[in-house]
Write a structure and sequence with these properties.
It is built from 5 helices and 11 strands; from the N terminus they run βββββαββαβαβαβαβ. With about 220 residues, the chain is an alpha/beta fold. A 6-stranded antiparallel sheet has the order 4-3-6-1-2-5. A 5-stranded parallel sheet has the order 9-8-7-10-11, with helices on one face. The protein has 2 domains: about 1-95, Translation factors (Elongation Factor Tu (Ef-tu), domain 3, Beta Barrel), CATH 2.40.30.10; about 105-220, Rossmann fold (3-Layer(aba) Sandwich), CATH 3.40.50.80.
């Protein structure tokens, strides 16, 4: 299945991230954490598909994606930055990525936090956010996505770390074995991972080495 939908508006999030709000087709449903393949409904771009996770609540009247654009090459995300209200995107079938399995620790690298947005928003809206923790690594403070929103979720424990911003007052540590030893107290719960492939692969091994049950580790595949 594929369907063309109109962009209603775009909203700045950071210097290179935007919310894209779209009309919602009738009976087009998804669960928090699920995604679809998206392409731009323009000549030369319709076959260039990229996976993006829905970041709105599942019962929202409109659809939303939160997308980081990479300006160093002429790809889909760079082209998306030039779009606005009235332009169109092509959506396809919904598929499962990261699904919530119970309270745990969400660990993300940069834009890897986007698959967690709808999950955490839904938990917050339904009063089930307590007992969850969000750890996100970015290069700089200005790269942090939805910092104020996450910090305002009462009951969500949030830890930011930056790796290339010496002037920041935030934690300045890479997420490695030492980081996990210092900042994760319980390895018996659920873990949710998303970020660059190498980071996720490394974290899976580090968590297992630290005593986490591999059955409790969920990552974007």
């Amino acid at each position: 299945m594929q369907i063309s939908v109109t962009i209603l508006d775009t909203v700045p999030v950071t210097h290179n991230v935007r919310h894209y709000r779209l009309e919602r087709p009738k009976n087009y449903g998804f669960s928090p954490g699920q995604a679809t393949e998206v392409s731009i409904d323009k000549q030369g771009w319709r076959d260039r598909k990229r996976p993006f996770t829905f970041t709105c609540l599942p019962d929202a009247e409109t659809l939303e994606f939160t997308i980081k654009s990479y300006f160093d090459h002429q790809g889909v995300t760079n082209q998306l930055w030039s779009l606005g209200a009235g332009d169109r995107l092509i959506l396809r079938d919904v598929w499962g990525t990261i699904q919530y399995r119970g309270p745990g620790t969400f660990i993300a690298g940069g834009a890897g936090v986007t698959p967690f947005i709808a999950i955490l928003r839904h938990l917050d809206a339904t009063g089930k956010i307590a007992g969850n923790r969000l750890i996100v690594s970015n290069q700089t403070e200005k790269d942090i996505i939805l910092r104020e929103e996450f910090e305002a979720m009462e009951g969500l424990d949030v830890l930011w770390t930056v790796t290339g911003d010496p002037g920041s007052s935030l934690l300045q540590e890479r997420i490695d074995a030492g980081f996990l030893e210092r900042h994760v107290k319980d390895f018996g719960g659920n873990f949710y991972l998303c970020g660059p492939d190498e980071m996720v692969s490394d974290l899976r091994g580090l968590l297992e080495d630290a005593g986490a049950d591999v059955a409790n580790v969920t990552w974007e595949r």
